[in-house]
Amino acid sequence: MEILKTLYDEVIGFLGIGNAWDILQTGDYSVLTTYEGITAFIVPLIPLLVLLEFILGLVYKKPDTKVYKVNFLIYVFNRFVGRFIAIAMVVLLIGWLQPYAPFQTSATWYWFIYGYIVWEFGHFLYHYWGHKVRLFWCLHSTHHAPENMNLSVTYAHFFLEAPYADTVRTTVCILAGLEPTMLFAIMFIDGTYGAFIHVGENMIKDARFGALGKFILTPSHHRVHHAKNPLYMDTNFCNLLNVWDHVFGTYQEEERKEKIRYGITRKMDSGNFMDVYFGEFAALAKDVWNAPGLKNKIAYIFMPPGWSHTGEHQTAKMVRKEYMEEQTV
Q1: Helices (H), 176-272
Q2: From CA 169, how far away is CA 161, in angstroms rounded?
Q3: Nearest 5°: phi and psi at 205?
Q4: Share of the chain above pLDDT 90, in %
Q5: Neighbours of 103 (CB within 10 A)
């Protein structure tokens, strides 16, 4: 019976319906006017959409079972090893850094817009470094390993990536004066939308969203980000507001003539949990071990993926630049 209870608790935890079920049981709907009440019914949306997307995949005979299997194993593994690390890191950083903020925001609409733009900057930094620093790419590559896009990909993360991401984003936001309550509200909105942009073609075929895509980052933009095509490499790092991609020149729309190919450029078995989860660490360790001299060993850790001490570099920036020059010619 204890095993069944544990299984039941894990299912309820995955679906995120515990708080909503409590509200429905008590019949006290006045709580829906509070932040906790609202989030209770928003949190389950993504897990339920994951199930719907999987069912539609079965209906369309495009279930992506290999992707779902590995992402499910990653979710289960992360539940055990990294459950509370990220939130603890956020709380610690707020306590340490808030006294150093030059000013504090307040709960007004204009400060909220400011806060979201600042949050997106922090997100851009963490995400950009996750592609440009080999060590951080080892944390992030698990998320890019799936060779198809669907909502389960949102659960595919190395367990230490969340603490790294929240360290960068929280540091930027708190030093920029964001009040903690506003920060948590933005984190919730951004996390929910950040899950939604992984929706696959089984549910939304063309996810450009028309004119709206000029102002916000759409699932189409994020599909581009997950592509390994030279045209699409290392683009669209933002999450909701794509302002910083425009500022730093990393914005890229999905081209109808350029079909997206998902995954990473390293040869790997995307159906193998160990290769997806630890493969980049193994590749980095091998490069560091074989590199001559301490300087080269350190360089492999902090230079972009594809960098080589031999000078035969194949970084994403170089591959994309070469491709763009060929297209121009």
Answers
A1: 180-196, 219-225, 243-248
A2: 12
A3: -70, -60
A4: 63
A5: 6
